[in-house]
Each structure stands twice: as C-alpha cells, then as structure tokens.
Design a protein that fits this description.
The protein is α/β, with parallel strands linked by helices and 487 residues long. It contains 17 helices and 21 strands.
Length: 487
C-alpha cells in the first residue's frame, strides 16, 4: 500500500499544527517521523488514522483519494495507530480488549479470539496472558496487546506514536524486532519519535518536522548533526552541569517498608541533603514509585520512619507533606497531575494563593499570562490542558509548582520530550537545586540518570541498593545493575 499525504493543513485557533505537509510512505519501509515536541507529528498521524480531519489537503491510498470520518474508517482501509498511551479498557482482560472493534457485534467468540491472540503473540515472541486484566499489565505489555489487536483487525499500515516512552530495554528490543518483521512482511510502519538514536537504529527513511512544516527528508544511514539541525535549526552543544555545595539534611529515611498489592519494598535507608539530586533507577515496578509516593505523603508506609526537615512525618496525611515544602510531579500528566477539561487559567487560579471563597479572575489571568511567557508554554490562558503537547503539559506542571520547595519528587520528568525540551526542563529544575531544593527523580533514560544525579540508588525486585556516586557510574554499568548483575 502506498500512502501519499498532499499539502495537509490543520489549525487549532491561531496555531498551525500542520502547515502544508506532504509525505509519501511505501509498503515494506519503516518510515521515521522526527521532530521536537509540538512540531505537528502526532496531529499529522491522527489525521492519517481518522482521529481528526484535516482543514485542507488530500490523502491518497494507492493513488485513490480517501476521506476518513473516524478511526474505524481508517482501520477498514488498513491503517491503524498505536498511541503513546494505549487506548484500552483496564478493567477488561487482554482477550476482551483484543476483541474490541472486531466484526461480529457484541458476542465474543472466546475460543477464536484466544487462538488469534496466542498465534499473534507466538509470531512476535510476546508473552501475554489472555485472561489477565489490562490493569495488571506493564506499559510495554499494553502496547504489545494494542499492536496485535490492530493486526488482528487486518491493518497493513501501522503508526506508532512515541512507542518507547516508559517501556523497559528488553521490551524495546522486542518491539523493534517485531517492527522489522512487519516491514519484511510488506507492511508499512510509521515510527513517530523525537529520539535520534532510535530513529537511526530502526528506520530506513526519516522525515523531519519543525513548527508544523517539513524541514527535510533523509535516507539511512543518518548523521546525528543533520537530524538535529533539521529538528531545531541548529546543532546543540553539550550540556554541562555546575557543581554546588550541598546543604543540611532535608529527608531522612530509616528502615522504611512500603507495599502495594503487587510488591513490597523494605529496609530502605536514605539521607538526602539540600541541593542534592538523587536518581532512582530500576525496571518499571521495582519499587521506585512506592518510595516516591511514601516520601510525598501519598502512600502510607507500614514500617520505618520518614523525617522531613527534622520532623517525623511518618503516616501523616498529604497536607502535612505539602506544608513541609514537598511537591510530587507524576509521570501521568493528565491522569494525576492536571485536570482535563480545565484551561490553563483555571489551573493557575486553583493553584494560586487566593484567600476567601471567590477567585480573582483578573489576577489569575495575569498570572497565567506571566507563567506562559516564563515557561515558554505554547498555548493561551483559555487553552484546555489536554490540547497541549506533552512537552507543554510538562512545562505547565512545573509552572504550577509553589515557590520555596524543600523536596521536589519527579516521576519521569522528561518522558516523551525531545532533546531541547528535556534540557530546558532540567535547566529549570537545576535552578531550584541551586536555591536549595533537594530532588528525587526516576527515569527510564539511563543517560539522564547518570548525567543529572549526584547519587544513584538502584531498585531490583523490591530491594534498594546502597547509594552510588553518579560520577563514577557509566551508563553501561547502570544497565547491568538494573538487570540485577552486581547489585
């Protein structure tokens, strides 16, 4: 199947998300679509997959014009999209999710669906339990399930939007192996990303977008400087972090034990000083999140002590931690950090120090405009937060943080962000560090952990290592430690 996008335009108010984009995708090719956050990549792919209409332009399939009114129309034509956050039903089993959208009406032929799921999993080496609820699956497993669901529906073109965000290295290797196999079988694969190394490793062609326009097309092998220049208009220099003297103890953790329904973490000892950055490394579900939630007052420990600013706050409610100057920035921006349906203005009004029962909307408007300017948020005060790109949602979360924090806890602070956006985020975080804020953060990006941490702790199977000097740990060594070797 040959896909031709001709002169595609899409506007959101004054913002030109797609500004005359033309692109051709051939069968049997892994086509990369590269660009910084907000470049228009996801918008273009949502148009191709029927999630939203173009304002102008034409889509051709094998030379024939098509008009998709819904994702169902696109799937019927052989085009399916795997979103950054998989579109599944957590309460349903893997088997029931596979059947969503399948022909046959409301009645599920479980035996046939089970055979289909098992055959597709065997084909790609996926290990999915058909009867497991989706809520129990990792992000990588949910992604695998969504891929086999689209293939079961017969798609010949599969679009993947930032598919490696939040998945482990083994899951990424399995995903890339499956995509190469699909390409060899004649399917077209469109790989949307901002990660240069992944595009270089996987794709045979790449188209680069910047501010809604195509800035260039490249054929493999790709030179990193060429891709960076097309993405940002310049080659980015190497970032160096300025060392600072550390202050007094902010957080003291003594023999802490925390558990969820799936995991228990115990025997945690950790001291964190003012201005110190500590990276929490480990595979997803190894215990880092439990520790972070406990240190933010969002998860009650069942053993040990948490001491903040010299005060024992073990088992205290969340407002106590807020009063002690603790803030938590979750990875799930829309699910846990922001409120879908509310505008930026409404978020800043809620986060402000308004006294009394009434919101002073003029003050909220002025503050919102100031924060949009200070944090380079591409949006307006009346923009709903769900309409922002991932990078702009992250900037909004940082802008909403209160002043004078003692402890800032961040879960995947640059998840899904391009190089320039990630550096900007860390520039603002390190400004807080220089003011004396201690930072705890977790990331799946090993280079980020090594580059920005003063010390590292590694989680594996509910156990935490002794702290390591980040300046003496290489990315390769950290990878082995996360895998359990030498921990």
């Amino acid at each position: 199947m040959k896909i031709e996008l001709e002169d595609i335009y899409k506007y959101f108010g004054p913002v030109r998300a797609n500004d005359g984009i033309s692109l051709t995708i051939e069968s049997g090719v892994i086509q990369g679509l590269l660009g910084e956050n907000g470049a228009g990549k996801t918008t273009l792919m949502k148009i191709l997959s029927g999630y939203q209409p173009a304002d102008r332009g034409t889509i051709l399939l094998d030379g024939r014009p098509v008009h998709f009114r819904s994702p169902a129309d696109a799937i019927a034509a052989g085009i399916g999209m795997l979103h950054q956050d998989p579109l599944d039903v957590p309460a349903f089993s893997a088997l029931e999710n596979l059947a969503l959208g399948s022909p046959g009406g409301p009645f599920l032929n479980r035996a046939r669906a089970r055979r289909t799921l098992e055959a597709l999993c065997q084909r790609f080496g996926f290990a999915l339990d058909p009867d497991a609820p989706v809520s129990s699956l990792t992000v990588g497993e949910r992604q695998q399930l969504e891929m086999v669901r689209l293939l079961a529906l017969g798609v010949r073109v599969i679009i993947l939007d930032e598919p490696t965000t939040g998945i482990s290295a083994p899951q990424k290797a399995l995903l890339f192996q499956a995509l190469r196999q699909l390409s060899a079988e004649g399917l077209a694969v469109i790989f949307v990303s901002h990660k240069l190394d992944e595009v270089r490793e996987l794709c045979s062609r790449v188209t680069v977008l910047r501010q809604g326009k195509v800035t260039g097309h490249l054929e493999a092998p790709f030179a990193t400087d060429d891709m960076v220049s097309l993405m940002f208009g310049q080659v980015l220099g190497k970032y160096t972090r300025r060392p600072i003297p550390l202050g007094g103890v902010i957080l003291q953790i003594e023999d802490l034990a925390v558990r969820s329904h799936r995991l228990e973490v115990r025997g945690i000892h950790l001291t964190v000083r003012a201005g110190e950055v500590i990276g929490l490394a480990g595979l997803e579900g190894s215990g880092q999140r439990l520790l972070m939630l406990a240190c933010a007052g969002l998860q009650k420990p069942h053993g040990g002590r948490i001491i903040l600013n010299g005060q024992d706050v073990t088992g205290q409610p969340y407002p106590t931690f807020l009063r002690q100057g603790v803030a938590f920035v979750p990875a799930a921006r829309l699910e846990e950090g922001l409120v879908p349906g509310l505008t930026l203005r409404e978020h800043f009004a809620l986060a402000g120090n308004t006294r009394g029962f009434f919101i002073r909307w003029e003050e909220a408007e002025a503050r919102t405009a100031q924060m949009i300017a200070d944090f380079n948020i591409i949006g307006r005060p009346d923009t709903p937060v769900e309409a922002l790109s991932g990078g702009n949602q992250q900037r909004a979360l940082l802008a909403l943080l209160p002043e004078n924090l003692r402890l800032l806890i961040l879960e995947h602070p640059t998840r899904g962000l391009d190089i320039a956006s990630s550096r900007w985020i860390w520039h603002r975080l390190l400004e807080r560090r220089e003011e004396g804020t201690a930072i705890l953060f977790t990331s799946t990006d090993l280079e980020e952990l090594v580059e920005y941490s003063d010390r590292l702790v590694v989680f594996s199977g509910g156990k935490m290592s002794a702290p390591l000097d980040a300046s003496r740990v290489t990315v390769e060594e950290l990878g082995y430690l996360i895998g359990g070797r030498g921990l």
